[in-house]
Amino acid sequence: MCGIIGAALRRGNAAAEVYEGLERLEYRGYDSAGLSVRTDGGTVTVKRGGRVANLKESAAELCGGVAIGHTRWATHGEPSDRNAHPHVAGKFSIVHNGIIENYRELKDELLQSGAEFASDTDSEVIVRLLDKYYSGDLLAAVAKTVGRLKGSYALGILCEDFDGIVAVKYKSPVVAGFGEKGVTLCSDIPALPEWVTSVSVPEDGDIVLISAQSASFYDGGLQSVNRVRLPVFAGQFNGGTGDYPHYMLKEIHETAATVRDTCDAFFRNVDVKRLTEYVRNADRIIMTGCGTAYNAGLAARRFFSDKCRVFCQVEIASELRYSPVHITGSTLVLAISQSGETADTVEAVSALKEAGARVVAVTNCGYSAITRVAHMVVPVCAGAEVCVAATKSYIGQLAALYLISRLTADVFTARSELLSAGEKIAELLKDNGGADKIAEICAESSAVFFLGRGIDYAVAVEASLKLKEISYIFSDGYPAGELKHGTLALIDDNTLSVIIICDESLSEKCENAACQVTSRKGKVAVITCLDGAADKLQDVAAVWKIPECEANLSPFVSAVALQLVAYKTAVSLGRDPDKPRNLAKSVTVE
Ligand code: M6R
Q1: Is the CB of 295 under 6 A from ligand 1?
Q2: Atom 10, ligand 1: which residue's CA is nearest?
Q3: Is there a catalytic annotation at residue 312?
């Protein structure tokens, strides 16, 4: 959802630093990229439509101590050179992440006063306002400009008269990072350079003056404010793909470690006593999130209904935002988000908190927006997840939610169960040939349906999301029992139905679904941890027998198996699984 970065350096070339940062930050958008650098001859700006790599040659020619950069996920104005950031006017150059909701009104006003626009973006009004309001007092011009804006914005601003960067934050993420080379600003902690050892997180409304030596924070009224320095460490940063061809495959191979690390952090960092009280006193639990995070809630609902005698519901955050549910002071909200910055999730849980609910964030990113809203944080320890398709964070979310669901019963048993699930994942990853055959059939199918019952249904929904977002094959995930209520009409010999069977108590019903599909000439593949089901369904197009697991733990293994199927399908079709078309990693706009 657009990435912004900046560097004010004591030593080294800030243009090169920012270019490298853009490569790390590209998962936030890859429609265009650009940077501005202060050189001896004034500020120079280069920008290109398409991937960050398109900027490489021109960026390599630039040198200076202060620079800002941008990767774009287009919202207003098509992806092109013309609409790429930074936007420039007079002495200013700016990069923006967010949406300016009142840009039409501002643009009309600026056009009437003679301004000329060079792009179709909402962001350009910001630089035009800065140019209009600046008469020597930089902070005053910034404050006056942001005072006119409605919407969300994280900004990096260069001004010819200031040897540094001005950053502004309102409802879009940005952090200031500090280290031996100088000071940097960045949308996300994982994309910070490795020399950064501490960060400060501005609050909404803050204006930050960044120089190579320090950063000074001001609130909206231009009063100086203190923002604490928090340590960061290398494990939080994007460490590259290593020996893997893609981040997605690397991150799938980190799922078992994520389960272990999430368990460790739960007992080390969480106030288990207080959280147990929250769960014990809850009149109901509402889990919410978007995309894969929502799907983790779907699976976890089963954990809660099995072991925790509290009514539990799962809501898509973008819907919950506008259809508030009844809340009491005892309602517990579990806000699930990898990035912790998803606008719909943050807004939905902020509203529930205001209505009186207790909010617990289940997130992979400390210091994120959701952690500031929540009463308590349960960390998911997946490390930096760079691939746009969530893999290890989903497994980590399941682990964290599994532990929460067992707080009032036998949380230490739950911990050992999770560790053994981690071992099963490792076993699966060592011997994953079953994924190849299913991926081959997926790649030649016009549509792929994922079916399951109970907890397998929750996995089916996530498997479908994973396949469609990175392979672009039409896909749906639904409860196997619903097949005969509509979807059967779509089945023909070009479609594949992948049936997930890991709950023994429901396996015969799922076997029936397989027969209903094959008798309509549809192709069927089965993923099961049950020997019985694997033996009975030998006639279908493919059967992958995955390591045996108790039903509630089976998503840890079956979901990873299906992540591999999606990955292999996408790669065989020549797609880039790390950067699927039209998407971006964290969705910080509505
Ligand atoms: O950062 P979050 O977990 O809040 O992100 C939620 C969704 O945007 C995210 O899971 C998205 O659906 C992924 N592309 C799924 O792979």
Answers
A1: no
A2: 292
A3: no
How far, in Å, from the CA of 218 to the mean position of ligand 1? 32
**CATH 3.60.20.10 domain range(s) in the chain:** 3-236
Distance CA 155, CA 241 (A): 29
Judge whether 196 and 184 are in contact, CB under 8 Å.
yes
Single-letter amino acid, residue 49: G
Which of 338, 362, 388, 585 is the best mutation target for the ligand 1 pocket, counting ligand atoms within 8 Å of the beta carbon and taking the most?
A: 338
Q: By the 8 A CB rule, do 528 and 546 touch?
A: yes
Pure H helices in 308-391: 317-320, 343-354, 369-373
* C-alpha 92 – ligand 1 centre gap (Å): 34
- Mark whether 353 is an active-site residue: no
**3-236 CATH, one of 3.10.290.10, 2.60.40.10, 1.10.3810.10, 3.60.20.10:** 3.60.20.10
Fold of 431-577: Rossmann fold (3.40.50)
- Nearest atom, ligand 1, residue 389 CA: 16
* 420 CB burial (10 A radius; 0-12, 13-18, 19+): middle
404 Cα: distance to centroid of ligand 1 (angstroms):
21
What type of residue is 529?
A: C
- Kindly report the protein residue whose alpha carbon is nearest to atom 4 of ligand 1: 337
At the fourth CATH level, the homologous superfamily of domain 243-428 is Glucose-6-phosphate isomerase like protein; domain 1 (3.40.50.10490)
d(CA 556, CA 475): 21
CATH 3.40.50.10490 occupies which residues in the chain?
A: 243-428, 431-577
pLDDT, tens digit only, all 590 positions of the chain? 799 999 999 999 999 999 999 999 999 999 999 999 999 899 999 999 999 999 999 999 999 999 999 999 888 888 888 999 999 999 999 999 999 999 999 999 999 999 999 999 999 999 999 999 999 999 999 999 999 999 999 999 999 999 999 999 999 999 999 999 999 999 999 899 999 999 999 999 999 999 999 999 999 899 999 999 999 987 777 888 999 999 999 999 999 999 999 999 999 999 999 999 999 999 999 999 999 999 999 999 999 988 888 899 999 999 998 887 888 889 999 999 999 999 999 999 999 999 999 999 999 998 899 999 999 999 999 999 999 999 999 999 999 999 999 999 899 999 999 999 999 999 999 999 999 999 999 999 999 999 999 999 999 999 999 999 999 999 999 999 999 999 999 999 999 999 999 999 998 888 889 999 999 999 999 999 999 888 888 889 999 999 999 999 999 999 999 999 999 999 999 999 999 999 988 887 77
